[in-house]
Amino acid sequence: MPRSTRAQFPDTFRWGVSTSALQIEGATDVDGRRPSVWDTFAAEPGRIRNGDTPAVACDHYHHLDEDLDLVKALGVGAYRFSVSWPRILPRGTGAVNEPGLAFYDRLVDGLLERGVEPWLTLYHWDLPQPLEDAGGWPRRDTALAFADFADVVSRRLGDRVKRWITHNEPWCSTIKGYYEGEFAPGKRDLAAAMQATHHVLLSHGLALPVLRSNVADGQCGIALSLHPIHTASDSEADRVAAIRHDGLRNRWFLDPLHGRGYPEDVLRELGTAAPTIDEGDLVTIAGKTDFLGINYYFREIVADDPEGGPMRSRVVETEASDVTGFGWEVYPEGLTELLLRVTRDYHPAPIAITENGATYPDEMAADGKIHDEQRAIYIHRHIDALRTAMDGGVDLAGYFVWSLLDNFEWAEGYSKRFGLVHVDFATQARTMKDSGRWFAAFLKG
Ligand code: FCB
Description:
The protein is of the alpha/beta class. The protein has helices spanning 21-24, 37-43, 64-74, 85-88, 98-113, 129-133, 140-157, 170-179, 190-214, 236-257, 264-270, 281-285, 332-346, 373-391, 434-444; strands at residues 14-18, 78-82, 117-123, 163-168, 219-225, 229-231, 291-295, 300-304, 313-315, 351-355, 396-402, 421-424, 429-432. The chain contains 15 helices and 13 strands.
């Protein structure tokens, strides 16, 4: 049974919950907002489960105060949210949409009034459609546009927001979006995807000095999705396949951010699909950060597979019986392992777990409650894993549960619930789940 308590963590440790704009806000054509790639993608038949779209989502745009009250009720000290680029710059560049910025003013002020620290993510995958039409992340200009967007947002909110995350999970927005085609914009072109990874990282580096100049005492970082990579068997072929796989999944992002350039072995595997890198880019990408965000959900068990994509690797299904509603194995030891590895190999800035959580097929019981004990245990076991990592020398700054609310889970639409708070998407009624109550009690001590 999980056993850690809040008292075993330093007072400075930040406990929080995470969300993202596209997944909760709705109001996609209100007050001057224009489409993002995800609005376009969701409108294409067959892209999203059940034909769901983010048009309404949790209608957070119109339930702001209620939702901030829920954040407060949880007793967390921090709230991680993202700002919608197409709400602020509907065409991606140029004219600023004042009502868009005003919404985030209200959000930030509402958090501060409730004693909750805002952690702002600039990009959680909702690229303005006009920028995609012009070439999207494979085009270098998109990185420059991102730096301008960072400037607009940080000029406005930098007096009150001190924690800035440039990007959420670059692997997903680029590899899943431009190579695997499962996420917006739904392309399948390896070279374009790899060029996109480079431009996303470049845009992170370009935004850093902008944020530094606009935000006094700001702390800046990026949030990566990282996975421990294990081998499917003891065979030499699987062993080296796991190294290749780790190269694209983890090292491709960690290495350049820590000043090492892109990993040679991955560049070799990519061949002509390797990105074009201009002089100075690698220095820009390796700009100093104040924390490293890590989103942790699962490990990957990898086998050699000549047909298995660019790294000739295949993720095999876990044999574990303890899996979440996504089929993701519950593997808290992996979080400890990952944190120790990243610390050992990269000596990073202090780490914050910017996402961790689980989907289960929650149902409202006859008593009107959601008895999701599994989710509470999931979270508690991962908190235990953090404690173990800290004992092993990992410098940890915080932990954010994904997510505050059930929401629009990308290609899975509304079929996957991750919230500590249940949302009835027909009525927009919010109900604190048992896991939310548990988390609040954990934080109370
Ligand atoms: C992460 C995403 C987040 C959410 C969780 C379940 O990859 O960053 O938006 O979808 O997975």
